[in-house]
Design a protein that fits this description.
The complex is a heterotrimer. By secondary structure, chain A is α+β, with helices and mostly antiparallel strands. Chain A has ten helices and nine strands. Chain B is an all-alpha fold. Chain B starts with 14 loop residues before the first helix and ends with a helix. Classes of the chains: A alpha+beta, B mainly alpha, C alpha/beta.
C-alpha cells in the first residue's frame, strides 16, 4: 500500500507541480522583416517570379488543365511565395503568402535536431543536414507554411527563408526587390511596425486598423496591412499566445533539469528493491514468480 | 526463473501462417517501391496531412497496443502482485515486437531516413524543446530495454542445450541478467511513462488545427492512461487467444482481476476527459453533434461498454469470451482516441483531404502480419507461455 | 524620335523631287537603322560622318542553296529609296542577284574585292552549303560552294550568315537532307560566325549588325548560337501581342472559328512562339504594322530555331519551356488532397474483418473456459486488488 502511494505521489508531483509559465519570447534586437500591404499589391506576381529565380525553383506545371502555366494552387515544394486572390463579389484583395518568420515559431519548437531554427536576424531557415523528414514542423505551423517534396526519394522541406543568402550580402529578399509598387518591403521589424502604424494613422479609411503580426501568435516578423478583414485572406489567428507556449510550459514543467524522470526512476528502483526484501522476509522466493506461487498456496489453504 | 513457461511447439508453417507471410511479402515489395519512388508515390499523405496512417496507427496506436508489458510490469513489479507473473513474458514479447514494428514504422515514414542515426547520436544538436525528440529517444531506448527484458526467456531455450559451451554461455548470461534485471525493469517502467505521455504532448503543438475536444493540457495524462488501458486490454485478448490457440489452460481468475483493474483506470480516464472539458468551458462542444461531437461520444461510448459490461454482468466477469469482447472494446476505444487526436480531429483547413492510399494500408497490414508471425514463431520455439496444457489439466 | 509627318509621306515627297535625299531624311533613316540594333544616338553622327567620308565597308555576298528570300527581304521596304540608301551605306562588291556583271567577270570582281579588302571585308552567306560527295550539289563558276566558302572565310574580317538556311541548314537540310546541306557555322567549324536566322529574317536584324560593324568595328552582343541578342534575345512568346489571351486561356482552335476571328492566341494551333527566339513580335515586316505571321492569324512555325523549323509539323503543339503564371489566381484555400475509393473500401474491409474476427473469436472463447472443466464463476471479492 505504502509503495503504491509513493509511486503515485511521485508521478503526481511530476505532473502537477506548480509550473512556471514559460517566458514569452521576443523578437531579436536585429530582427528583420517584411511588410506586405494589400492595398498596394496589383497581383503582378513579379515577386513569385523573382523568388523562383533566386531560389532556383522550377515552375509548377502539375495543376490539371494548366500544364502550360506555372499555376500552383498553394505554397508547395517548388513555390515559396504565392499570390492568392480573395474575391467574394463585394471585396477583392490580392494576398501574398509565405513564411511569417514567427517570433516564437512552432516549427522550431517541433524540430527534433533544430533543422528549422531562428537564425541570423531572426529568419527561420532550414538545415538539410539535420532534417530526417519527420514533418512534425508541418503539423505544428499554424499557417501551413513548410512544404515537403513528396515526389522525391530524397525530399526536402521547402519554405521562404527570406533569402538569407542575399541578406548576408547586404541585399534585400528577391520579392521585395522585384515588387514594382513596393507592396512588399524589407526592413527592420521595429521600423516596419512604425511605418505600418503610420500608414493606418494617415489613411484610417483605407486599412483594417491592425498590423497583423504585431502580436498575433506571439508576433511574426512578416507584417501585413489589409483593406479587408484578415480572416478573409487566410490570416485567421488572433490569439496572442504563441503556438508552442502551452506545450512548452507543460513539457518543461515536467522535464525541467531531468529531475522528475530521475526521481521517478529512483523511486521505481527503490520500490522494486523493497518488494524483493519483503518477499524474502515473507519466506517466499525473491522473484515475483515465487510470490505468485505463495499467493496461490494461500488461496488454496 | 519461470519454471512453468514452455515453448508451445507445433508446426510453424500452417495455412494461416503462410497467409501472413504473403501479406508480409506484399508489404516488403511495397516498401522497396516506397524507398525508391518516395512517399508521394506510395502514400496519400500531403502537406495538409503530413502525419498519416503510418504515424497515427503504426507508431502511435501500435506502441500503445504494445504497452501490455508496461501495464503488467506496473502490477507485478511495483505493486508486487505476483499472481500476474505468468502474464509478464508473453506481454513483454508482444511489447518487444510491437515497439520494434513501431520503430520500423518510423524508419519507413520519415522522408530522410539516412540521417535518422543523428537523432540519438547528435546530442549537441538536440532541441530540448521538441516533444517528438523525447518520444524518439525514449522509444529507441525502450526497444533495447524490452529485448533485454525478454532475453532471459530467449536464452532459456539454450541453457540446457546439449552443446556445453552454448549452455554455459547462455546460463551465465541468463543468471547475470536475472540479477540486474531489476534496474532494467525500472527503466522499462520509466521510459513508457515518459514517451506515452509525450506522444500526447506532441499533438499539443498542433494548436488550433487540433479540435478543441481533443486539444488540452491534459493530453499527456490522457495518452498515458490510454496506453495503460490499452495495455491491459491487449494482454487480456492476447492471453485468451494464446491459451486457445496453443492449447494452454487459461487463468481466467487472473485475467478477470486484470479486467477489473483496467475498468478502474478506464473510469479515471473518462472522468478526466469530461472534467477537463468542463474545466476548459467546452461543454458546448460535447453537445454539438457534428463529426467531432459524434466521434467524441463514440470514443466515450466504446470506453464505457467494457465498464458497463463489467458492472451489469458480474457473473460473466471471468468468462473468457466475455472478457475478450470487453477488452476488444477497450483497445478499440483507446485506438480511436489516438487516431482521432493524430488524424481525424486534426484539421489543417477545410480545403485539405486525406485518406490512406492502398499501398499505405497494405504496408500497415503487412507489418502487423510480420509481427504476428514473429510472435507465433517465438511462442512456439521459446519458453514464453505458462500454464498447463489442456491435456495435462484434464489428467 | 518624334516625326512631324509620316515617313512614307516624306519619302514619297522626296521621290517627287527626284532621287536626291535631304540630309534630314538621311539622318533619320540612319537613326532608324541604329535604333533597330540599339546603338546610341551618337552612333548616328558617327555613321553619317563615316559615310560622308566615303568609308563604306566592303561586303561579299555568297549565295548557295537559297531561295534568295533573304536578299528580297532587304529590298522589301515600303520606301524604295531606302533600299538604295542602304546599299549606299555599304559597298556591295559581290552579289549574284544584284550586281551588274555576270559570269567570269563577276567572279573576277569577287576575287579582286576580296584581295583588296582582305581581313576587313564582311562576308555574308545566304543559303545552306551542300557537303555530300565533296559538295558538288552547288557549284558556281565550276567551283563548289564549299570551296568558295572556305576560301572566302579565311580572308574575311567578319562572317555573317543571313537566314535560317545559312544559319543552320534550313530547308535544304530538312529530312532526308540528300545533299548533306549544312549551315555556315557548321561548315566553318571554329570560326566565329554571326547568324541571323529567320525565313526570312527581319531586314533590320541584318542591317543593324552590319551598321554597327561598319561604324564601330564591333559586333553586337551574340548568344551561344551567334545570334545578335538585340534581335534574338527573347522568345516570340515574351513579346507577343496576343499574350494576354494565352494567359487567360483564350485559344483559337481552328482557322476561322470565333476565337481565331477574335484574334485569340494561336498556341493550340501549333504556335512555336514559346520556344522561338526572334523579334518578329515587335519588329514587323515590310514596315507594315501587323505584317508578321501571328499578326495575320497564322501560328509562328519557329523559323529561327533549328529544332523547330522544317522539323516539327506546323500545327503540332509544343511544351512551354518557361511557364509563367496564368491570368488567374488561386483562391485563399484551394482544395487539395485526394481520397481513393479503393482505399476506402480496403480500409472498410480491414476494419470490418478485424471486428468480425474478434466477435467470432470471442464467441469461441466463451466456450473454452467451460471445456477445461471450470464453470464461468463469480469473481471472488477477496481476490480483488
Amino acid at each position: 500500500m505504502l509503495k503504491s502511494v509513493a509511486v503515485a505521489g511521485a508521478t503526481a508531483l511530476v505532473k502537477a507541480s506548480p509550473v512556471q509559465a514559460r517566458e514569452k519570447k521576443t523578437a531579436p534586437s536585429n530582427a528583420v522583416g517584411m511588410l506586405y500591404d494589400t492595398t498596394r499589391c496589383i497581383g503582378c506576381r513579379a515577386c513569385v517570379a523573382a523568388c523562383k529565380e533566386a531560389n532556383g525553383d522550377p515552375a509548377d506545371t502539375r495543376t490539371p488543365g494548366m500544364e502550360a502555366y506555372d499555376a500552383p494552387p498553394d505554397l508547395n515544394d517548388c513555390t515559396r511565395t504565392i499570390v492568392k486572390q480573395f474575391n467574394d463579389g463585394d471585396q477583392q484583395s490580392f494576398v501574398k503568402m509565405q513564411c511569417m518568420h514567427c517570433v516564437d515559431p512552432a516549427c522550431a519548437a517541433a524540430c527534433m535536431l533544430g533543422a528549422l531554427q531562428k537564425r541570423e536576424f531572426g529568419v527561420v531557415t532550414w538545415e538539410p543536414d539535420l532534417c530526417i523528414g519527420c514533418r512534425y514542423c508541418q503539423v505544428a505551423c499554424p499557417f501551413n507554411v513548410p512544404k515537403f517534396e513528396w515526389e522525391s526519394a530524397t525530399p526536402r522541406i521547402v519554405k521562404c527563408e527570406m533569402c538569407s543568402d542575399r541578406l548576408a550580402e547586404g541585399k534585400e529578399p528577391a520579392c521585395c526587390e522585384a515588387c514594382p509598387r513596393e507592396a512588399v518591403i524589407f526592413g527592420e521589424r521595429a521600423e516596419l511596425l512604425r511605418i505600418a502604424h503610420q500608414r493606418i494613422k494617415q489613411h484610417p479609411d483605407r486599412y483594417v486598423p491592425k498590423v497583423y503580426g504585431e502580436r498575433e501568435l506571439g508576433g511574426t516578423q512578416v507584417l501585413v496591412l489589409s483593406h479587408v478583414s484578415f480572416d478573409k485572406i487566410g490570416l485567421m489567428h488572433e490569439d496572442e499566445e504563441s503556438v508552442p507556449h502551452l506545450q512548452q510550459t507543460i513539457q518543461h514543467g515536467i522535464y525541467k533539469g531531468f529531475v522528475a524522470p530521475a526521481a521517478l526512476y529512483a523511486v521505481l528502483g527503490g520500490v522494486m528493491v523493497r518488494n524483493r526484501l519483503v518477499n524474502r522476509t515473507n519466506g517466499n522466493g525473491d522473484s515475483p514468480a515465487d510470490v505468485m506461487e505463495a499467493t496461490k498456496k494461500e488461496a488454496r489453504a | 526463473m519461470n519454471a512453468s513457461a514452455t515453448p508451445a511447439g507445433g508446426k510453424l508453417w500452417t495455412g494461416p501462417y503462410k497467409l501472413l507471410a504473403v501479406m508480409a511479402g506484399i508489404a516488403a515489395v511495397l516498401l522497396i517501391w516506397r524507398f525508391a519512388a518516395g512517399l508521394g508515390a506510395t502514400t496519400a499523405m500531403n502537406d495538409g496531412y503530413p502525419f498519416g496512417l503510418w504515424i497515427a496507427f503504426d507508431v502511435v496506436t501500435g506502441t500503445a497496443l504494445a504497452c501490455g508489458g508496461y501495464a503488467v510490469a506496473i502490477l507485478v513489479y511495483v505493486l508486487n502482485k505476483g499472481r500476474y507473473h505468468p502474464l509478464v513474458r508473453p506481454a513483454i514479447l508482444t511489447s518487444a515486437l510491437g515497439y520494434t514494428i513501431g520503430g520500423l514504422s518510423v524508419l519507413i515514414d520519415v522522408g530522410r531516413p539516412w540521417l535518422i542515426y543523428r537523432v540519438p547520436i547528435y546530442f549537441w544538436r538536440w532541441n530540448l524543446d521538441s516533444a517528438l525528440l523525447e518520444v524518439a529517444l525514449c522509444i529507441t531506448a525502450y526497444i533495447f530495454v524490452l529485448w533485454i527484458e525478454l532475453s532471459p526467456a530467449l536464452l532459456e531455450r539454450w541453457t540446457k542445450s546439449e552443446r556445453p559451451k552454448l549452455a554455459r554461455f547462455t546460463s551465465i548470461t541468463h543468471d547475470f541478467l536475472e540479477k540486474t534485471l531489476i534496474w532494467v525493469i525500472a527503466l522499462g517502467l520509466l521510459l513508457p511513462t515518459m514517451h506515452q505521455s509525450s506522444l500526447g504532448s506532441v499533438m499539443m503543438l498542433a494548436g488550433t488545427k487540433l479540435h478543441l475536444l481533443w486539444h488540452t493540457a491534459s493530453l499527456p495524462l490522457l495518452f498515458l492512461l490510454g496506453a495503460v488501458t490499452m495495455g491491459y486490454g491487449v494482454v487480456v485478448m492476447e492471453s485468451a487467444l494464446a491459451s486457445s490457440a496453443f492449447k494452454r489452460e487459461p487463468d481466467t481468475r487472473m485475467l478477470s482481476s486484470l479486467y477489473s483493474v483496467a475498468v478502474g483506470v478506464t473510469w479515471i480516464f473518462v472522468s478526466i476527459r469530461i472534467l477537463d472539458l468542463i474545466a476548459r468551458g467546452r461543454l458546448g462542444l460535447m453537445l454539438t453533434f457534428d463529426l467531432y461531437g459524434t466521434l467524441f461520444w463514440l470514443e466515450i461510448g466504446l470506453l464505457m461498454i467494457p465498464v458497463v459490461m463489467y458492472h451489469a454482468q458480474p457473473s460473466m466477469r471471468s468468462n473468457l469470451g466475455f472478457m475478450f469482447r470487453a477488452a476488444f472494446f477497450m483497445v478499440a476505444a483507446g485506438a480511436l482516441y489516438r487516431f482521432n487526436t493524430y488524424l481525424v480531429a486534426f484539421n489543417p483547413g477545410e480545403n485539405w483531404s486525406y485518406f490512406p492510399a492502398v499501398p499505405e494500408i497494405l504496408v500497415t497490414l503487412g507489418l502487423i502480419a510480420a509481427e504476428i508471425m514473429a510472435y507465433v514463431y517465438i511462442v512456439k520455439r521459446f519458453p514464453i507461455l505458462g500454464g498447463r496444457t489442456a491435456v495435462a489439466a484434464a489428467a | 524620335m518624334v516625326l512631324p509627318l509620316s515617313e512614307a509621306s516624306l519619302l514619297s515627297r522626296e521621290q517627287e523631287h527626284g532621287r536626291a535625299m535631304s540630309r534630314r531624311n538621311f539622318v533619320r533613316i540612319c537613326s532608324l537603322a541604329a535604333a533597330a540594333v540599339g546603338l546610341p544616338a551618337r552612333a548616328v553622327a558617327q555613321m553619317v560622318d563615316a559615310i560622308a567620308a566615303g568609308k563604306k565597308p566592303s561586303v561579299i555576298w555568297l549565295s548557295f542553296q537559297e531561295c534568295t528570300g533573304c536578299t528580297e527581304t532587304l529590298l522589301r521596304p515600303t520606301a524604295p529609296a531606302l533600299a538604295d540608301l542602304l546599299l549606299d551605306l555599304i559597298s556591295l562588291d559581290y552579289h549574284e542577284a544584284l550586281m551588274a556583271p555576270s559570269g567570269h567577270l563577276a567572279e573576277e570582281a569577287r576575287i579582286r574585292a576580296m584581295e583588296e579588302h582582305a581581313g576587313r571585308f564582311i562576308l555574308v552567306t545566304e543559303g545552306a552549303t551542300p557537303t555530300k560527295d565533296g559538295g558538288i550539289y552547288c557549284k558556281i563558276g565550276g567551283r563548289t560552294a564549299l570551296s568558295i566558302l572556305t576560301e572566302a572565310a579565311d580572308m574575311a574580317g567578319a562572317i555573317i550568315a543571313i537566314g535560317s538556311c545559312a544559319s543552320f541548314g534550313g530547308v535544304p537540310a530538312a529530312e532526308p537532307n540528300p545533299t548533306g546541306a549544312k549551315g555556315t557555322p557548321q561548315v566553318l567549324v571554329g570560326k566565329p560566325v554571326v547568324t541571323i536566322p529567320g525565313c526570312p529574317p527581319n531586314p533590320y536584324n541584318f542591317l543593324g549588325t552590319v551598321l554597327q560593324y561598319a561604324t564601330f568595328g564591333t559586333l553586337p552582343e551574340l548568344d551561344s548560337l551567334g545570334r545578335p541578342k538585340f534581335a534574338y534575345g527573347r522568345t516570340i512568346h515574351e513579346h507577343c501581342p496576343r499574350r494576354a489571351h494565352f494567359d487567360a486561356g483564350r485559344f483559337a482552335e481552328k482557322y476561322g472559328d470565333e476565337g481565331h476571328r477574335s484574334g485569340w492566341c494561336l498556341y493550340e494551333l501549333g504556335c512555336k512562339g514559346p520556344q522561338t527566339y526572334a523579334n518578329c513580335a515587335t519588329q514587323h515586316f515590310g514596315e507594315v504594322v501587323g505584317a508578321w505571321p501571328i499578326g495575320i492569324g497564322h501560328p509562328c512555325f519557329g523559323c529561327t530555331e533549328q529544332s523547330l523549323a522544317f522539323r516539327l509539323p506546323v500545327h503540332e503543339t509544343i511544351e512551354i519551356e518557361e511557364p509563367t503564371s496564368p491570368n488567374a489566381f488561386p483562391p485563399i484555400a484551394a482544395p487539395q488532397g485526394t481520397v481513393s475509393p479503393w482505399a476506402t473500401g480496403l480500409a472498410g474491409l480491414a476494419v470490418g474483418g478485424v471486428a468480425g474476427a474478434a466477435y467470432v473469436a470471442s464467441k469461441k472463447l466463451e466456450v473454452v473456459g467451460t471445456l477445461s472443466g471450470e464453470e464461468p464463476e463469480a469473481l471472488d471479492e477477496s481476490e480483488e486488488s
